[in-house]
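Hi support team,

I've been running sequence recovery on a batch of backbones for a student project. Most finish fine, but this one hangs at about 90% for roughly twenty minutes before it completes. I'm not sure whether the input is malformed or the queue is just slow. I've pasted the structure tokens below so you can try to reproduce it. Let me know if you need the job ID as well.

Thanks,
M.K.
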């Protein structure tokens, strides 16, 4: 555990990439365990790649920018402002990016476009039912350095849902 903490202190982006990739893979593994008859290591691996190589390098600087949003004299309003920016600017893009990633595995550019067209709005609504509360707490009480890691940990079940939803067009 001390090696992991040292990694996060010395190389926070690398630590976040490893953690987030692992947790995206775990979320997919949970989704597959709950709904698939045949387990796909490739699917789990590609979810891990997405989390570590695509999501974390975008989210890491995003969280740094969000951390600079302050409402003078109010930690609660600062957290609410960060959450509002996260959910109005990043969430729609992040949901579309993940759906396009999964769609591209199955059908290239046409698969990516179809996946986003069919699933984006419903998935974004589900996101808005869950993440504003989680991010409100995260952006209010969690130290900035740990916010992406906390989101990734809290997101294991969300990532499972997201993976299940993104793969639902195959059924």
């Amino acid at each position: 555990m001390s090696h992991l903490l040292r990694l996060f202190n010395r190389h926070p982006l690398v630590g976040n990439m490893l953690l987030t990739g692992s947790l995206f893979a775990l979320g997919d593994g949970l989704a597959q365990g709950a709904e698939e008859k045949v387990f796909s290591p490739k699917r789990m691996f590609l979810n891990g790649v997405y989390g570590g190589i695509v999501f974390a390098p975008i989210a890491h600087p995003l969280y740094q920018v969000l951390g600079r949003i302050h409402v003078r004299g109010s930690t609660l309003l600062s957290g609410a402002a960060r959450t509002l920016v996260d959910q109005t600017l990043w969430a729609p893009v992040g949901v579309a990016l993940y759906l396009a990633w999964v769609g591209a595995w199955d059908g290239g550019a046409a698969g990516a476009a179809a996946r986003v067209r069919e699933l984006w709005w419903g998935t974004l609504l589900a996101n808005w039912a869950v993440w504003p509360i989680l991010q409100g707490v995260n952006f209010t009480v969690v130290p900035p350095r740990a916010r992406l890691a906390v989101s990734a940990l809290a997101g294991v079940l969300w990532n499972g849902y997201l993976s299940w939803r993104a793969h639902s067009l195959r059924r």
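--
Follow-up from support: It reproduced on our side and the slowdown came from queue contention, not your input. Helices lie at 2-10, 12-35, 41-67, 75-141, 147-166. No action needed from you.
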